[in-house]
Every structure is written in C-alpha cells, then in structure tokens.
Amino acid sequence: MKKIEEQHRLEFEDKARIVVKVPGVYTFVGDFADYCKGFTLCGAAPMALEVALSPREDQSVRLFMAPQKDRKRFNIQNTKYKREDRWANYIKGVISVLNGRGFFPEAFSLTLSGELLRREGTMTNSAIVLGVTLALSQFFNFGLTEEECATIAYSALSTFSAEECRLIIFLAMLYVDSTSLLLFDVQYLKYERISIKDLDDEIVPMLVESKIAPQALQEELSIRREESFEAFKVLRSIFPSGLIRDIGEQDVKELVGQLTEEEKRICLYVLGESKLAREGGRLLAQKDMVGYGKVLNKVQAGLRDLFEVTCPEIDWLTKRATELNGCLGATMISTGRSGTILVLISRESIALYITRMEEYEHIFGFKPTWKSYSPVGKLKIGSLNNGNFSNKR
After folding, report:
1. Are 293 and 206 in contact (CB under 8 A)?
2. How many CA atoms lie within 13 Å of 17's alpha carbon, on the beta-carbon side?
3. Which end of the chain has fewer beta carbons closer than 10 Å to its terminal beta carbon, N or C?
C-alpha cells in the first residue's frame, strides 16, 4: 500500500494517517436472493480499492481520485447532493449519514486509488462508501463496529445517492479473503465460509469479459429488480407466514389468477437461483467441481429463459464454452458491471476456447478478454509509516 501513501503525499503534501483496502466482491450465484431472503454465493474480486486519509485545519474536504487524476472539494458543513459533483456525492453521503447518527467528522483530505476504480459500477461505488466510512470511523474514533460501518455505507449509497445496491455485498467486503467463498443467508445476515483451497488443479475458473457496453444490460437488470420486488410483494401476500424462500416451485405454478405469468417466471427464477446458490456452496465444500459446474449451467439457463436478462453476446460465449468436453459449466455473474462470465474449464481445453473466442470478435465486433479467477486478499485497515503498514483490525 506504499503507492497510495506516495500518491496522497504528492497530492496533499501531507502523510496519510489512515489507509483502508477494500476488496471488490463478485456474486457467483444468488444475485437476486434479496427478494426471497434466500442465499447468495460470493467471493473476493481480483481487484481492490484503497483509501488514504489525513486531517485538515480548514473546513474543506478535498478529494483526489488518483487513477483518473480527478479532484473534488466541498465544505464539511455543506453535504447537499449536487449532480455535478458526481463521485464526490458518495463521500458527502457518508458524512450526511454519519451526521444523522450523531457522528461529526472534521475536515479531511482523501485519496482514492486501486485497480477497482478502473471499473465503473455498483461494486466500485459500494467499495468507495465502505472504505470512506471505515477510514472516518477509525481516524475520528467513532467506536463503530465494522458491521455498523457497512450499514452506514449501505444507507449512504442506497438513500443519499439513490443507487441500487445490496447490504450483503457491503458485509461480504468485510469478510472475503483469497482462500474461500462466502455463502450468505440473506434472511439472517449470516454466512458460511467455504474453502476453495485444494480444489482440482486441472479445472480453472476463468473470468471472461465480453466487452459489451458497460451499461448494456444495466437498464434491463434494473427493470427486473423492480419487477422482482413487486412480484414478491404479491407472493408474500399469498403466503403470509413462513420463510418465503421455502415456497416450492409447484406451489408457484399452481397460483392461477393470483400471479401473472410474468410474475410466476420471475418468482420461479429467484427462488430457484437461491436454492442453486445453497446447492453450489454445498458442492464446493465437497470439492465436487462437476456438480458445481452443473449449477452454473442451470443458473445461466434460468437467466436466459426465465429471467430473460442475457444478450446474444453472453449467450454465444456461454454456449461455445459448454460445447467443449472440458467445460464443466458457464454463466453470467454479477461483478458490478455488465457482461462478465465465469467459465469452469479444464486446462487442456483453454486453448480451444480461446480459439473460439477469436470468432466472437469477428461476429460481434468486440474483443473479449479472459484471465483465471485469482481473488484479492482481505479487507485491511491501518496506518502507514514510511511504507510500512500497521494493521488495526
């Protein structure tokens, strides 16, 4: 984390007092589980966000986004949302929510850095507000737990900035590491850690970026989220007791006249996805990569046929993968942006799949990129002294 220390010193001519490293989070199965209070399987992304903070003696908050060399400033007493302030509103939102809970940070300088800032989307914005909340709480000794910081960050993004986000992702950012996935129970906000060490070395989890426009699927997914929320309100009114995630497939199919056919498809997908997340976690815990691959294929089939939120590019890449004998499964996953695919493939089949992806560029005009899944390390909070990191967690 020496790089962000240097970036902060050069920009503000002051040493960073607190540094936070927030890992990104990918959702592999269960991206829509919030609507049925079901299960989500997620893990650390290959990139992280870093936050560096130092105090100021005036009343201003000064911000520096290092990769873009973008600068913002505002008065600590004026955290009103302004559209032209763009990403600075995320920091304003954190201060506003903290103020509302009786915590009043003083003026500060703040640097944002890290590979995650090169990827626009919900995951990046979530990491920003969480990292800023943790840094402010630590430096100003607010005495907040990390979980309380996660709920404050969630409120800042979902309420102040009015962006769609999931509390589960904020919590996952606190707990993910490089050696496991997390199976979250959305109903009870608890998780089970599933080791991904000692899996079959011959099977490679490959991340494929389709390179479609970043917002290509976002509007469709946003609409589907709104429709899911409304569909499950109706379903809950029909089944007012018990856990809604336990409602069976046949029970939904037999609801004649109470749900529209579209609402049935939505409920069937979301309920099924939640069950697949739990099943996928169980299979991974048993080191059953073949079974886990089948789960991924079922998720992709549901996204395509029931939920109808894929696109020709995604369908082409997943289909070409699953046609190979060495591919165990493939599906679109949630990474905070559109068009990322997880492919579970044998080492000996990678070259053939890469050859097929060359055809993709000729057909669609996009050049896909790929790399093996290599999760970044866990959340870090601490202080820096001449490049030496002192962990405060």
Report:
1. no
2. 14
3. C
Amino acid at 245: R
DSSP bridge pairs for 109: 54, 62
Contacts of 332 (CB under 8 A, 6+ apart): 300, 303, 310, 314, 318, 339, 340, 341
Which stretches in the chain have pLDDT values below 50? none
The CA distance from 153 to 128, in Å, is 9
Give the pLDDT score at 196: 95
Give how far the C-alpha of residue 45 lies from the chain's centroid of Cα atoms, to the nearest Å: 8
Do 169 and 25 meet the contact criterion of CB atoms below 8 Å apart? yes
**172 within 8 A of 182, measured Cβ to Cβ:** yes
The model's pLDDT over 113-150, given as tens digits with 9 standing for 90+, comes to: 999 998 888 999 999 999 999 999 999 999 999 999 99
HEC-encoded secondary structure of the chain: CHHHHHHHHHHHCCCCCEEEEEEEEEEEECCCHHHHCCEEEEEEEEEEEEEEEEECCCCEEEEEECCCCEEEEEECCCCCCCHHHCCHHHHHHHHHHHHHCCCCCCCEEEEEECHHHHCCCHHHHHHHHHHHHHHHHHHCCCCCCHHHHHHHHHHHHHHHCCCCCCHHHHHHHHHCCCCEEEEEECCCCEEEEEECCCCCCCEEEEEEECCCCCCCCHHHHHHHHHHHHHHHHHHHHHCCCCCHHHCCHHHHHCCCCCCCHHHHHHHHHHHHHHHHHHHHHHHHHCCCHHHHHHHHHHHHHHHHHCCCCCCHHHHHHHHHHHCCCCEEEEEECECCCCCEEEEEEEHHHHHHHHHHHHHHHHHHCCCCEEEECCCCCCCEEEEEECCEEEECC
How many angstroms from the chain centroid is the CA of residue 269? 20
Q: Are strands 388-391 and 327-332 parallel, antiparallel or unpaired?
A: unpaired
| CB 58 within 8 Å of CB 70 | no
pLDDT for the residue numbered 230: 97
Phi, psi of 95, deg, nearest 5 = -60, -40
* Under 8 Å between Cβ of 67 and 116: no
Please identify which residue in the block is written with the tokens 């970044």.
376
